[in-house]
């Protein structure tokens, strides 16, 4: 298997949705809302993708200032390609695009905590999320 990694290669919402559905991430992403998916792709400023020939098999989708913080919003690898180092390489390639002081930040899927700890991330209990529809100050 020869995987090619690409930086900021344009991918379609259909390719992204197919990958999300073939990984474990679709259950936590709006795969039925094409406008939202289009916006997610259009407004990401760092996109690392993994390809097996013409098939998208992995993605690291981030929003970053490249100097202080990089939010890795989506890390997905097709189930048939998992445990082959693709996710790790997507993160390494993401990190290589960032300045020396830039932190890589993510919210782990429920079953992924041990994975991130294993590859060197530290747990930060200070993350807070305000769900859409919730009101500030209520």
From TrEMBL:
SUPFAM superfamilies: Acyl-CoA N-acyltransferases (Nat) (SSF55729). PANTHER family: FAMILY N-ACETYLTRANSFERASE, PUTATIVE (AFU_ORTHOLOGUE AFUA_6G03350)-RELATED (PTHR43233). PROSITE patterns: GNAT. Keywords: Acyltransferase, Transferase. GO terms for molecular function: acyltransferase activity. Its EC number is 2.3.1.-. InterPro entries: Acetyltransferase_Butenolide (IPR053144), Acyl_CoA_acyltransferase (IPR016181), GNAT_dom (IPR000182). The keyword Acyltransferase applies. It is an enzyme of class 2 (transferase). Pfam families: Acetyltransf_10 (PF13673). It comes from Glaciecola petra. It comes from the Bacteria. CDD domains: NAT_SF (cd04301). This is GNAT family N-acetyltransferase. The keyword Transferase applies. Residues 3-138 form the N-acetyltransferase domain. Coiled coil: none annotated.
């Amino acid at each position: 298997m020869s995987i090619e990694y690409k930086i900021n290669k344009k991918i379609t919402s259909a390719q992204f949705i197919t990958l999300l559905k073939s990984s474990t991430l679709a259950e936590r992403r709006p795969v039925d809302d094409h406008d939202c998916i289009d916006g997610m792709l259009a407004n990401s400023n760092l996109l690392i993708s993994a390809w097996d020939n013409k098939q998208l098999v992995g993605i690291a989708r981030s929003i970053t200032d490249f100097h202080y913080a990089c939010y890795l919003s989506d890390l997905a690898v097709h189930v048939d390609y998992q445990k082959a180092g693709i996710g790790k390489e997507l993160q390494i390639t993401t990190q290589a695009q960032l300045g020396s002081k830039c932190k890589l930040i993510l919210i782990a899927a429920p079953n992924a905590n041990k994975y991130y700890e294993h590859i060197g991330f530290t747990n930060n209990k200070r993350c807070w999320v305000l769900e859409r529809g919730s009101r500030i100050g209520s």
